[in-house]
Amino acid sequence: MEIGIKKPKLKLFCTMDDLSRQVEEIEAISSIYENEWSVVDEFNRSYELRIGNKTPFALKFEVTLPTDYPSIHLPSFTISAPWLKPPDRKAVEAKIETIGKDNSGENVLFLWIECLREFVDDKVRDFEWLKANGKIDVKEKKVELSTAYEGSTIYHGDPITDRKSTFQGHVVKVTEALQVKTVLNELLTNRKIANATHNILAYRIYNEKTKTYLQDCNDDGETAAGGRMLHLLQILDVKNVLVVVSRWYGGIQLGPDRFKHINNSARSVLLEHGFIQNNDKKSKSHK
Q1: Residues 205, 215: contact at Cβ < 8 Å?
Q2: What is the largest CA-CA distance in the chain?
Q3: Burial zone of 245 (CB within 10 Å; 0-12 exposed, 13-18 middle, 19+ buried)
Q4: What is the residue-wise DSSP string for the chain?
Q5: Counting CB atoms within 10 angstroms of each CB, which of 21, 174, 178, 246 has the fewest?
Q6: Model-level pTM?
Q7: Do the Cβ atoms of 254 and 163 come closer than 8 Å?
Q8: Looking at residue 7, what is its pLDDT?
Q9: What is the pLDDT of residues 6-24, one digit of tens each?
Q10: Residue 239: what are its φ and ψ, rounded to 5°?
Q11: β-pairing verdict for 37-41 and 152-156
């Protein structure tokens, strides 16, 4: 989402005043938020901030500063969070837009960040209240029951836990790309899945007419995980299937082991519910 303040003239270069104000702002932000703040692309002045990493409401805020910020245009930004529902997203983006309009010509990053931190803090407080009053069972992260979906079924695998991080696979038959978003939205209606730190997905759909595959993946913030999972689907030669692996981060970095757990979760749920059984038989018949 990009928000801009329209003016008659558009600066095509960064004035020294804009540049110095940007440098001062970034130095201040990086000193305040330290490990939460990181540089994505210094040349293009792109940065990201991770908020609430040790909570169920982790959020990534990415900003890119235009050359004429803050004098004319505001930064462009994106907010990434698998648990963030459309109404909440619309509300928080509206707040950020209002802050930008109310502070035209001024540095706004600190105000934006504090708005998001307050938003996440409110979510955490609500969650803690529900947990304290027995409304949420946070100990059991396994989604027990299969979910009906327009004639198909979303199956949920057994969770894998390592150093406080938990991984769980979900699989469903799909025959067209439009179903992928529908299934993902259905999965996110489950609070436990919506609160996962990452919901990594990959799918392969076979077109009988063209004899080709439609396939894609999404890391959901877990860099390279989606591509690895799609490669697994290709190796297993499965078709007309969508796999989602939820990860609840436990506060301890797992390094490369996280990819092993993600692929194991995907393979296990596929095998358990018969999506690769025929392929196994087929491979044996060729020996």
Answers
A1: yes
A2: 73
A3: buried
A4: -B-----SS--SS--HHHHHHHHHHHHHHHHHHGGGEEEEETTTTEEEEEE-TTSTT-EEEEEE--TTTTTTPPPEEEEE-TT--HHHHHHHHHHHHHHHHHTTTS--HHHHHHHHHHHHHHHHHHHHHHHHTTS---S-----S-EEETTEEEEE---EEETTEEEEEEEEE-SSTHHHHHHHHHHTTSHHHHTSSEEEEEEEEEETTTTEEEEEEE-TTSTTHHHHHHHHHHHHT--SEEEEEEEE--SS--TTHHHHHHHHHHHHHHHHTTSSHHHHHHHHHT-
A5: 178
A6: 0.49
A7: yes
A8: 38
A9: 333 333 344 568 999 999 9
A10: -140, 160
A11: unpaired
Angle in degrees, 0-180, between the axes of helices 109-132 and 16-33, rounded to the nearest 10: 30
Domains of the chain: 16-132 (3.10.110.10), 147-285 (3.30.230.30)
Structure tokens at 208: 């009988």
Structure tokens at 68: 């004429």
Residues found in the chain:
287
* Distance of alpha carbon 263 from alpha carbon 125, whole angstroms: 34
